[in-house]
Amino acid sequence: MGVGTYLEDLDCGGQLLVRVDSWSINYNFQGPDNRYKGTSLIISGNEIDTYIHAYKNNWLEYEKLKIAMPPDTELTKKGEMNMTIRIGGYWEGVCIYDYFMPLRAKLDLDNILSNYIYAKSRAKAVQDILIGLSQKPV
Predict the structure, then answer these.
(1) What is the 3-state secondary structure (H, E, C) of 17-40?
(2) How far apart are CA 115 and CA 23, in angstroms?
(3) pTM: predicted TM-score of the whole model, two decimal places
(4) Residues in CB range of 12: below 8 A, 6 or more apart
(5) Element (DSSP H or E) covering residue 123
(6) At what angle do helices 106-135 and 48-68 cross, to 10 degrees?
(7) Which regions in the chain score pLDDT beneath 70?
């Protein structure tokens, strides 16, 4: 982390990284056990609205599939922004990637969306501060 960099842990499990000219939400997911390497996912600030939209659409698809699928069946489908929609099984829900962070309840969806909206607002405020600091004479 260098001069002009801000980090903040988010309730959604990601970390907000803000620089003067960019920002992102970074996720680091552990493997199922020590035999596997972890997985990283970076959502750049200019993609956040697309992720919000994708989460909403993928949630609607999840709800439709959940109603339509017979009990005790499993289905995996790719959603928007490479998210995974799973019906049945251990990782059921809308997963941000592969089987990571499954959202199973509307409250889960609302929480992640509010985290993303917060991150967007927070990043702008921090960037304004960083820009102001970078313009002050030393």
Answers:
(1) EEECCCEEEEEEECCCCCCCCCEE
(2) 14
(3) 0.89
(4) 25, 101, 111, 112, 115, 116
(5) helix 106-135
(6) 170
(7) 1-3, 31-35, 134-138
